[in-house]
Amino acid sequence: MSRAVELLKSAVELNLRYTSTLLHLSKDYLKDANGVLTRGPQPAPAPADDSGSPSAQRAPLLIVGRAGETGNGAFAINNPGEREINVHLVVQGELDERVVTVDPARLVLKPGEGAIVRILAAIDDKLEVGHDSVGSVVAPGLTNQGVPFIVRRLPDANGADPAPAKPRGARAKR
Questions:
Q1: For residue 26, how far is the Cα from the chain centroid?
Q2: What is this structure's pTM?
Q3: Could you give the number of structural domains in the chain?
């Protein structure tokens, strides 16, 4: 009986550690997302990567899909301030609002309140297979930084799509 109790205690301890780690990671993610969306004009210190050296910038959200699908990604935004803020999010980049939208595009955040914002991309035949279209979601007037994203069309499952487009700057061999 004491062996079963010890196993149960160990399982509970493991679950508590796992939950604590998950909450810690979630808190750090929300803190970083908040910093991107609410920071003033001063540049943020670059976070260190696995090697300990600072990385150049925040990694973009990758939004992918096949023709006819809607690709999506999400990020968190919160209001750490003491006043209510009205947020109007705008998509900037290679693709316009007919292709990439945000949901919600407008929101009101009370002090200490947060929300999840989705980035939706209508993937169609006009997008080249394998071509990365870059963009950013910004909140004009609140910050000069945005949440970067990349939209990429995947080849159709039946293989009917042409070969992937060459990366920008690639030269043909002569």
A1: 14
A2: 0.58
A3: 1
